[in-house]
Amino acid sequence: MTTPRRADATENRARIVRIAREDVKNGGELKLNAVAKRAGVGQGTLYRHFPTREDLLAEVYRDDVDDLVATAGVLLTTCSAFDALTRWFSRVADYARVKQGVLAAVESGVGRDLTTHSIGPIGDAVTTLLDAGKTEGSIRHDVDARDIILLIGYLTRLEDSEWDTRAHHVLDIILDGLRAGAHSPARTDGTSAKSLRTAPTE
After folding, report:
1. Which of 12, 102, 130, 176 is a good FRET partner for 45, with 20 to 30 A between their CA atoms?
2. How buried is residue 29: exposed, middle or buried, by Cβ count under 10 Å (0-12/13-18/19+)?
């Protein structure tokens, strides 16, 4: 049985991470004393959980990945596969902004480790969503998780001023390309994008 003290510590930790994530997502500088104050804990409590600013940033990223991955399965129990993917992409926009903020604030080696360990779980979540959509008949069969990860990775290149207007627009374009029937549309001259790519040059 969880003791009250242990439960309080868990709640404090979760609240600290949640508040830190808000700061990162909003593009602000993460200041530990400000996070502690907003979380309603002393600085000593914060430092017991996260000895350094980088420790807190890394936990923000790991927690966000866990939530993103879990969201995929939850959405598939509540709506159609394509709707689940659409709503998951909306969550991806927030994840990408948090990722951008974290990676900009930690050492490059830490950033590489964080992204390396997140690729597998996120890829599994994407595969689950794509497989459901393919079975449903709403998503084209020639895409896989690697395609999606490469495409959404470009969100981290957006400037802060572009997020509100461009991030979801970019994801909508990707979603349109994932729809069943979107594969290599024929041009008016009878050719297709794929045939143009593979045609020999003169």
Report:
1. 102
2. exposed
